[in-house]
């Protein structure tokens, strides 16, 4: 059962990394700027999930703070980018 | 692999395994939707399931795992869950409003935006340009 659990953790790591690569594809060839912002937001979310899965892999609680910080900065950066795309400046 | 993993009972490791597999499958499906879907307003639905169900499953798996590993209640992943649930609709609304606004602005200048060049996009994007622009002003 523990072998199955460690296999599941490895599968989670691999699929999150694969999802990040797919987001990177959309980020590089997305036709409009809002596509790129959406891909970047998804990339932030996948990075947070990657930190959580690494915490599971190494059985360490430290990765929780990394995931929390990634979630916070991802939200702020996405809001700033959408504001810039809509208005042309971030702080009016 | 860490040695503490062997001490986990089956009734802990089975739901953690299932939740991790569910979460990883949903994250992959969301990223595939982000890449494969043809129009921007369809594409925004892909990351939505990644953010809600994929993140939720992996966070619940992490909670059960660490609670069993340290034999006490470890639920500070609830913080991330609450934050994601609060901010995901805000981010989705902001990105969609940005897309609508930029498409309208590009049409006002007389050129079709690159996302709506492929024919089938006209029914995805139903409202006419002049009416909504004049209603806004």
From TrEMBL, chain A:
Membrane topology, from the record: Multi-pass membrane protein
Organism: Vreelandella malpeensis
High-level lineage: Bacteria, Pseudomonadati, Pseudomonadota, Gammaproteobacteria, Oceanospirillales
Protein name: K+/H+ antiporter subunit F
A UniProt-annotated Pfam family: MrpF_PhaF
Keywords: Cell membrane, Membrane, Transmembrane, Transmembrane helix, Transport
Compartment(s): Cell membrane
Entry's transmembrane regions: 6-25, 37-56, 62-86
InterPro entries, sorted: MrpF/PhaF-like (IPR007208)
NCBIfam families named in the record: PRK06161.1
Family: Belongs to the CPA3 antiporters (TC 2.A.63) subunit F family.
Automatic annotation (TrEMBL), chain B:
Superkingdom, natural source: Bacteria
Coiled coil regions in record: none
InterPro entries assigned: PhaG_MnhG_YufB (IPR005133)
Keywords for the protein's UniProt record, in alphabetical order: Membrane, Transmembrane, Transmembrane helix
Residue spans crossing the bilayer: 12-35, 47-66, 78-100
UniProt keyword Membrane, yes or no: yes
Matches recorded under Pfam families: PhaG_MnhG_YufB
Name of the molecule in the record: Cation:proton antiporter
Provenance organism: Vreelandella malpeensis
Lineage: Bacteria, Pseudomonadati, Pseudomonadota, Gammaproteobacteria, Oceanospirillales
